[in-house]
């Protein structure tokens, strides 16, 4: 690893969006959300210096059934370009099923951004625009009293 480098952070890729990574010893976990917010994923793996190897799962928001998720393996390598005041990055690949290679993944580490794994993923009904009836996420103000239904419109003449 480059001097002072740390895997924990948030990385941005045009294809995969924001990847949040948290390292705990040699274990690492992460979550990402695609830029169009139509898919989100999670990874779990191990760290060996500037290399992580992991298993991943990506979920399609609002989908159910066999096409609602993909999974596989992958690797990422930590990089620091030469020069002063440069942004660290990662580069690697993810493969489908048991493959560890396939699609390239390159991302730039965001400065002064802390990862928040809980902000991404399967949080329940709020994923598809619903609300949690028992949460603090409720409308403010005083509820209006119910109104009486209006008289039904006259039925059209029969032909």
TrEMBL record:
Superkingdom of the source species: Bacteria
Biased composition regions of type Gly residues, renumbered to the chain: 121-132
Residue ranges, compositional bias (Pro residues): 143-159
Region of interest (Disordered), ranges: 110-159
Name listed for the protein in its UniProt record: Uncharacterized protein
